[in-house]
Automatic annotation (TrEMBL):
<feature type="compositionally biased region" description="Polar residues">
    <location>
        <begin position="243"/>
        <end position="264"/>
    </location>
</feature>
<feature type="compositionally biased region" description="Polar residues">
    <location>
        <begin position="350"/>
        <end position="366"/>
    </location>
</feature>
<feature type="repeat" description="WD">
    <location>
        <begin position="307"/>
        <end position="348"/>
    </location>
</feature>
<feature type="region of interest" description="Disordered">
    <location>
        <begin position="238"/>
        <end position="264"/>
    </location>
</feature>
<keyword id="KW-0677">Repeat</keyword>
<dbReference type="InterPro" id="IPR036322">
    <property type="entry name" value="WD40_repeat_dom_sf"/>
</dbReference>
<protein>
    <recommendedName>
        <fullName>DDB1-and CUL4-associated factor 7</fullName>
    </recommendedName>
</protein>
<dbReference type="InterPro" id="IPR045159">
    <property type="entry name" value="DCAF7-like"/>
</dbReference>
<dbReference type="Pfam" id="PF00400">
    <property type="entry name" value="WD40"/>
</dbReference>
<dbReference type="InterPro" id="IPR015943">
    <property type="entry name" value="WD40/YVTN_repeat-like_dom_sf"/>
</dbReference>
<feature type="region of interest" description="Disordered">
    <location>
        <begin position="345"/>
        <end position="366"/>
    </location>
</feature>
<dbReference type="InterPro" id="IPR019775">
    <property type="entry name" value="WD40_repeat_CS"/>
</dbReference>
<keyword id="KW-0853">WD repeat</keyword>
<dbReference type="InterPro" id="IPR001680">
    <property type="entry name" value="WD40_rpt"/>
</dbReference>
<feature type="repeat" description="WD">
    <location>
        <begin position="188"/>
        <end position="230"/>
    </location>
</feature>
<feature type="repeat" description="WD">
    <location>
        <begin position="145"/>
        <end position="187"/>
    </location>
</feature>
Amino acid sequence: MASTLTHNSSLPVSALAWANERGGSSLPRLALGSYVEDYSNQLQVIGLSSSLPLSEPDVPPTGVDGGDFNILAQAHHGYPPTKVAWEPISKRRNELIASTSDVLKLWEFNEFNQSNQSNFNGNIHNPINTQPSSLNLVAQLTPKTPGTAAPLTSFSWNHSTPSRIVTSSIDTTCTVWDLETRTPITQLIAHDREVYDVSWLPRSSDIFVSVGADGSLRAFDLRSLEHSTILYETSAIDKRRAQPNTQSNIPNKNDNSPITSTSTTNAPLLRLSFNPYDSNYLATFRADSGDVHVLDMRSPGAPVTNIRAHTRGVSGIAWKPDGGVLATGGDDGAVHLWDVKRGEKVGDKTGSNGMSRQSSSVSNKPSLLKDSVLSYRGASPVHSLAWGSVPSVVGKRSSWEDWIAVGGQSQTIDCNGNIPQSCAVCIWVITENNETALN
């Protein structure tokens, strides 16, 4: 069974999303968003050219540029996408993809005939007697006049009610959209400063959670928008200015200049990710911090587990589909997989997936997790992470495996550590060139 698949992108990859597979015969596909500091960014859909690399590890790559995947469709995106996601599974013939940047964009992906997919010849032009895949922009949604709206930082597609998407913006607001009418259901001021990420509570059509530059994590319910719940706030950071003629913050008694005031601000929270199996738990991280915090929504105020994850800032977090493992990526070029259950302390109560929950007889001090179950280290920062379930064929039996896609620039990956069989994963490393190695 193959353990690594690669795609050699011509541009740095900043956003990733696995397609929601429609059945065991579907081959893996991903939507990719690029990041360049101008208006020339691309949105691409890539797909595995055949199922052979999954079942036959000795088969050489069959994609273009020496990779395992081919570009099925691509489109001009303009500004860099801050997030991409596929529509939750539906009966729609052509799949929808959403992305955010200056506005919320909806794209329609029309894939060529699935029955001929195994004959895909590795080019954007697809096999004879099939129609080429296409990626078409079908809507641009903004609550204001186009060109005047503040940039969007993220969004979340509701799996219980797929007609709903909630977006977050640097203008402090979150907007809930009805995709059937292409109109906003509501827009609310969610934070005191920029909102950086938002996510629906798994299996809920009404509750969503957001994080922002004010350092807070807040929960909202569409059925009662008069109130919100602050689940967690980061500690304040001193922003006291030094005196003009001294190296310290202690006033100089011989200095007649006015004494500067002390101002504090909470450390911003950048991203959040719910455990898909047990929605009581979610992970988040602060700006310029190598730590990740796991919180229990039933016990707001403090993390239940702190993960000492990276030597530089965390850039992405993603839970394994069964909720047992949390993946983190960082500016140090590392990807770590964490068994969060290892953060348990003696006397803790456990949730439905075995994660720790503090009892009254145990200290409220969070558990500290420093040892990952598996680590991959690269030479350049990791930009994005995404888990996906991929169908594979073993003999005459079909099964599903959990794969993780890692996006960034060129990567040289070294693997170390042991991972239990129950947590076995395959790593798919997406690189900017073909100088990839797995040792």
